[in-house]
Amino acid sequence: MTAxxxxxxxxxxxxxxxxxxxxxxxxxxxxxxxxxxxxxLVNKALLTTxxxxxxIVLGVGQMAVxxxxxxxxxxxxxxxxPDFDKKIPTKLFPLPLLYVGNHISGLAxxxxxxxxxxxxxxxxTIPLTLLLETxxxxxxxxxxxxxxxxxxxxxxxxxxxxxxAFNLEGYIFVFLNDIFTAAxxxxxxxxxxxxxxGKYGVLYYNACFMIIPTLIISxxxxxxxxxxxxxxxxxxxxxxxxxxxxxxxxxxxYSTVLCSYYNSALTTAVVGAIKNVSVAYIGMLVxxxxxxxxxxxxxxxxxxxxxxxxPPHLIxxxxxxxxxxxxxxGAGDGIGKAxxxxxxxxxxxxxxxxxxxxxxQAIAAEIEWTIGSTVKIIQADFAKDDIYEYIKEKLKxxxxxxxxxxxxxxxxxxxxxxxxTPDDFQSLIHCNITSVVKMxxxxxxxxxxxxxxxxxxxxxxxxLFPWPLYSTYSASKAFVYTFSKALQAEYKEKGIxxxxxxxxxxxxxxxxxxxxxxxxxxxxxxVKESLNYVTIGDETCGCLTHEILTLMFLSIQGCHSEPDPxxxxxxxxxxxxxxxxxxxxxxxxCQHQIVLVNSCAxxxxxxxxxxx
Length: 612
Prior knowledge:
Elements: H1 14-17, H2 21-49, H3 55-75, H4 88-92, H5 95-112, H6 115-121, H7 125-137, H8 143-161, H9 168-191, H10 198-220, H11 223-228, H12 236-262, H13 265-287, H14 294-303, H15 305-309, E1 325-329, H16 334-345, E2 349-354, H17 357-370, E3 375-379, H18 388-395, E4 400-405, H19 425-450, E5 453-458, H20 471-491, E6 496-501, E7 506-507, E8 521-522, H21 523-530, E9 539-540, H22 544-558, H23 565-573, H24 576-581, H25 587-598, H26 600-605
Parallel strand pairs: 1-2, 1-4, 2-3, 4-5, 5-6, 6-9, 7-8
Helix pairs in contact: 2-5, 2-12, 2-13, 3-5, 3-10, 3-12, 5-9, 5-10, 6-13, 7-9, 7-13, 8-14, 9-12, 9-13, 12-13, 16-21, 19-20
């Protein structure tokens, strides 16, 4: 279980509680998108193809199935939520009203609009969610996210303005649905306190409170009578689709709560927008009620790219969320230098710490000249352990919101057996281990008092497995990995994010500027991508290709019976003599051999697909 994977009190789902937080975030979003996609298609068939007369009655069916499934699950002790008491209505308000409004308006708009137009107009949920999260939850989003949201809305306006099948009633219903969906998502996020109702309690009591009023509405409007007199009740295929809609309605409610529980309400809205890409194009082909026009088609397609371009978890770290000061160790080169520029671009003032004064002065001058952020430099050699009082004094009076523990040293770039590596182990320990502990100790206490902060600890992919021929480096980075995850477990509830990054090959001066390729990233590429994943969990490789590489290594372990197959494969790859012989090779050939050594395990298991 990750640091953030705390059980949900009485309503905990043991299976999900054991998932790493980033996996839970991804799976919950995928689950929500899939359920929403399937439900729209089934409801469209019921309300348009079969012409079922009452969206309200369909909503009642979905509520009834939700109540039945959750109640039976509670009786069988599969889940748990609190028994009813007189405080529950107060705890839930206004969720039940938003819940039924979302249900009815969504079903009504689905029946009155073509699928492409329905999915385009549903995108107005995203800016409404962003606005409500800002007002109700106090969240703030970066400029690139706001720009992406407005790009979505621009496309929606173009598409709506040229809709040849304009239906005023359908438009009213879909905009009401947008409002109810946004409000429901934000308030659901607010109400899902595991110490109160939990996610199952929210689902169950929402449905209980609203099924009877909704049923009364259906009677008063004549919907119930029309539904009972509907002529397709003897059609087996219709009945199957009606029951499927009811079950998918439950799954959608559950997946929405789950996605909002693990992510933000805005993330849930964006996942819904991404899902709409498939729905809209399917609607063009099989819906039968889409009237083509060039402007409308252009508007549809303008709507779709922004959700793909925005990070799925919508990083919200900004100077307004954490304090505006940032400390970066090892800022004179490579990854540390890249973090210095990128965080300055995002509006942070930066404190750069490194041992080479000339490099620090040059970087500070460039940041101040090109970006305009305030820069403070501190010259310190992290290979020594007597520097921290000096650093503490230099940081006095500064409000630090972000700490990037980046400084590190690689004792041997070329693969080397332990007895052939440089024996300056104390410097390695000071630089790779002590620096992380001491800098965290200096900064964390102030973050704790402010109840906010972000610490990024740069470890390595070599920390995830025993890594022969880089044994001391691998072990030192394994300390950073374990320390970071334990620390996040201790301080997450204090509002502090502590994330460890485990990249593989990054082209920096420390790695002798390895040639870049699909796997080996530049420092700038790595930093820009890694900052997209700050809120995704307590660990990340920092870039997608390195995440895939980790999964491949894990699959190698899963396919072998011996405890450490990667260790054996690496040992087979380079003998002691072969490793020593690399020392005399030109740099380009050395780079080639290093890539071979560090990818040998993958080549062994995937010889035709990887690195050929």
